[in-house]
């Protein structure tokens, strides 16, 4: 049985089509559209340009769903539609123009589903999960395989760029302001004494950070200290930063360094020494939740 899952995020709108068999998911298709909805807001509302962008992206993705003949289609949105003032209007317009009914997840639900998706893909016993999206960051503290605490913060790689950078090149001062903001939010919700060794990164920011590390420091896979060095080096050298971000993830030329800064500050706060990039996340968690509700274990 094939399931299509569409995730409407602040940076990208992503379609994943899975084959479900014997309680396992196999990813068949992974397509994304860079809609950049997080930068298409005005006075807290998604603009008409943003509404057009999301509808056009969804119509484009329908082609892949039809080609794969997916029997079930699930569509949800995270901060892109959660953190705007005209959510209801946008959801109604999407339904009228595309036929898709969008489930707008709360921050708490997003964090829980992120953990469920990640935990199904790999063993997470002790650590902190950070899902850094374009418009929000979900933090899940895990001890002995159980969630201790979850929080959703209204900052992601795109919103950090818009709010603190605005225009490349990013400076050391800009990165410091991003980190100061992230530290303030974390301090209001978590204690630094809740230290863990491993940071489990989910999303494009973590994947890009890992890819940059692989390019620049091929012998230091996943070491947070190396990522700190990498961030400082790229901030100091605009040409080096542009060259390597274009190699690692060209569509993240603006947002890569803010994403790495958020990742590094989370790791510093919790005392994490190692980064592991998770394959599973909120999309898998959302689909598993749906399957369980339908009685498929």
Low-pLDDT residue spans:
none
Which overall shape is indicated by the principal axes computed on the Cα atoms?
globular
Number of strands: 12
Number of helices in the DSSP assignment: 11
Estimate the mean pLDDT confidence: 93
User: How would a crystallographer describe the biggest sheet?
Assistant: 5 strands, mixed
Structure description:
This protein is α/β, with parallel strands linked by helices. The chain has helices spanning 48-68, 79-82, 87-98, 107-121, 157-165, 172-189, 204-216, 224-236, 238-248, 256-270, 282-293, and strands at residues 2-8, 13-21, 24-33, 41-42, 45-46, 72-77, 103-104, 127-132, 137-143, 146-153, 198-202, 274-277. A hairpin with a 2-residue loop joins strand 2 and strand 3. Helix 1 crosses helix 3, helix 7 crosses helix 10 and helix 8 (224-236) runs antiparallel to helix 10 (256-270). It is globular and about 45 Å long. The chain starts with a strand and ends with a helix.
Label this structure with key terms.
single chain, 297 residues, alpha/beta, 5-stranded mixed β-sheet, 12 strands
Write the layout of secondary structure elements.
Layout: E1 2-8, E2 13-21, E3 24-33, E4 41-42, E5 45-46, H1 48-68, E6 72-77, H2 79-82, H3 87-98, E7 103-104, H4 107-121, E8 127-132, E9 137-143, E10 146-153, H5 157-165, H6 172-189, E11 198-202, H7 204-216, H8 224-236, H9 238-248, H10 256-270, E12 274-277, H11 282-293
Parallel strand pairs: 1-6, 6-7, 8-11, 11-12
Antiparallel strand pairs: 1-2, 2-3, 4-5, 8-9, 9-10
